[in-house]
Amino acid sequence: MQEPNLNNIEKHLTRLVRERNLFTTPDQLAGAGDYIREYLQSVHLSVVEETVPFEGKQSKNILGLKEGVDSSQGVFVLGAHYDTVAGSPGADDNASAVAALLEIARCLENSQLNASLLFAGFTLEEYG
């Protein structure tokens, strides 16, 4: 496992800390999802997007899978949400957890795991 790098976490926070809301800043929410997807792909995860419809609009969950060597061990999920309430930069709720999620994915990039690990960037948590 690679050592965590605080500079990487700071880079993620710099990119993510801003309002990311489906109704007030949908482009920024979509941009955050794109950033998460691109980063998970850069650490060689198998990434899919799951469309989430809500009140006539839609956003996407970003799911990156690191395959384990023993399928009988199941899949563990490590997740964080990347949307914010309107008017909030979302640093503590929840860019900090997204930054940690991305750094953990990088740290495990070259590691072999027994169980599969799904890295999930969830959207629309603020709406339930």
From TrEMBL:
Gene Ontology terms for molecular function: metalloexopeptidase activity
Pfam families: Peptidase_M28
A GO biological-process term: proteolysis
SUPFAM superfamilies noted in UniProt: Zn-dependent exopeptidases
Stretches assigned to the Peptidase M28 domain: 63-128
Protein's name in the database: Peptidase M28 domain-containing protein
Family annotation (InterPro entries): M28_fam, Peptidase_M28
